[in-house]
């Protein structure tokens, strides 16, 4: 009798979690057209469970399977892993403007006057003026 009263709330909660997961995962990366290959991830922790006790060996085996550029997710944070000198040179020297920005964090935004510090400011004209 008590279980019959809980079916609708349990079903609604499960449906809410599924919709929330789909919405959150689509807002991080709306399209997968130009993304590097990635191993399958879990909904909340991403690929953290795959790192194990020796992450360097795990990343080496993943690079053998997926190539020199791998997209991993540490929670909801996407991480691009370059496992060759050529890929690292491409990222750090040729595509530096694309990868030079910092993530938008809410705590420095509140504590440091809208992320106006040199460590948290987004890359751009303001950041160039601050470091001079």
UniProtKB/TrEMBL annotation:
Residue ranges crossing the lipid bilayer per the database entry: 6-24
InterPro entries membership: Cyt_P450, Cyt_P450_E_grp-I, Cyt_P450_sf
Chief place where the protein resides: membrane
Pfam families found in the cross-reference section: p450
Subcellular location: Membrane
MF GO annotations: metal ion binding; oxidoreductase activity
GO cellular component: membrane
Entry keyword Nucleotide-binding: no
Names of required cofactors: heme
The entry's keywords: Heme, Iron, Membrane, Metal-binding, Oxidoreductase, Transmembrane, Transmembrane helix
Plastid listed as a keyword: no
Membrane topology: Single-pass membrane protein
Family as reported in the entry's similarity comment: Belongs to the cytochrome P450 family.
Stated name of the protein: Cytochrome P450
Organism listed in the record: Castilleja foliolosa
Lineage, uppermost ranks: Eukaryota, Viridiplantae, Streptophyta, Embryophyta, Tracheophyta
